[in-house]
Design a protein that fits this description.
Structural class: alpha/beta
Number of helices: 12
Largest sheet: 6 strands, parallel
Length: 332
């Protein structure tokens, strides 16, 4: 006896004494089957706890109506509004979303791509684990050969032929540093992501451009790490414990800034002792009376632009979109 949920069309056909063709037609094109026949087949399908094999159906129709979304870390609040926008818009167009969190692992990223290719998804939205120039994952050739529409978000994979939606990183760095200088800060600690990350490099170009415009002497220290909270906290803790005391700390993403805030408090200091600035808005900070000035990006719009670009590419293989850039907005 089959376990519940493992019944097949053949099992139903045997029970109702009909052909598998008739049963398949009833389940997939019920309008083409007599009402009495359809009722009997559906009744038996319920009794057997039959679950349609969507994957097999997709292989037959060549239209999965599945979209894959691969992100480097769903722990990062930056991705929250992006995922929400993509999910909502996909539902409107009758697409289901398969979400993979690679947790910054190239191995998990490759596995996610392989899984999505095996499901013959209609398209993929990809935020890679690294935007270093020398990061060239083996799956890149697979994606090109599969001819599946791919849209990149946030991090650009060097050498990849896929379009994407990115942040205006250089300007974000410039606006943030310009604001800190205007507030009177002259000794500034920047806590950045990986030294070889193009996002980090671009944001530091903007930061140094703002410093070059300042007529007064300034001091800039940079701590490199990754884009997560714990390394930022540990690095800033060690920096402050060495009797260095910046006027302000500039965190180059949400999690870095939160790590900086933790370190400030662990050193017995507060926001009146050291200024704090962030790229991207810290969620719920206003509610707790801790608003942190920042360069805010409309990440919902980023996700919406990505999914609409992908859906158009799915519908029209001859559509070749250009990269789009999301501009940051200063929020004090």
């Amino acid at each position: 006896m089959k376990k519940p949920g493992k019944a097949t069309i053949t099992d139903i056909a045997r029970r109702v004494n009909m052909t598998t063709v008739t049963v398949s037609r009833a389940l997939n094109q019920p309008e083409k089957v007599k009402k009495e026949t359809l009722g009997r087949i559906l009744e038996v399908a319920r009794e057997l706890n039959y679950v349609p094999n969507a994957f097999a159906r997709n292989l037959k129709s060549r239209e999965s109506h599945l979209i894959g979304l691969i992100t480097a870390s769903i722990d990062n609040p930056f991705y929250g509004e992006i995922i929400k926008a993509i999910s909502r818009e996909a539902k409107k167009k009758d697409y289901s979303l398969l979400l993979f969190d690679t947790d910054g692992s190239p191995e998990l990223e490759e596995r996610a791509v392989d899984t999505l290719l095996s499901y013959q998804v209609s398209g993929i939205i990809l935020s890679v684990v690294s935007d270093d120039d020398d990061y060239c994952p083996a799956y890149l050739s697979k994606l090109e050969l599969a001819r599946i529409p791919v849209i990149q978000i946030d991090r650009k994979l060097a050498g990849a032929p896929f379009p994407g939606i990115y942040l205006e990183n250089c300007d974000s760095g410039y606006q943030g540093m310009h604001t800190l200088l205007r507030q009177g800060h002259r000794r500034i600690l920047v806590v950045a992501g990986p030294k070889t990350s193009n996002i980090t490099i671009s944001r530091l170009v903007g930061i140094r451009s703002a410093l070059d415009e300042c007529p007064e002497p300034t001091q800039l220290d940079v701590l490199y790490g990754d884009y997560t909270q714990t390394p930022a906290r540990e690095a800033v803790n060690a920096y402050l414990a060495s009797n260095k005391h910046p006027d302000a700390i500039f965190g180059l993403n949400i999690l870095i800034t939160l790590g900086c805030l933790e370190a400030i408090r662990q050193q017995g200091l507060n926001r009146s002792d050291i200024g704090l600035f962030s790229i991207d808005q810290i969620p719920y900070a206003d509610i707790f009376g801790e608003p942190i000035p920042c360069i805010s990006h409309n990440t919902y719009q980023l996700g919406l632009t990505a999914i609409n670009m992908l859906l158009r590419k799915i519908d029209d293989p001859e559509y070749f979109p250009n990269d789009e850039i999301i501009q940051g907005e200063l929020k004090l």
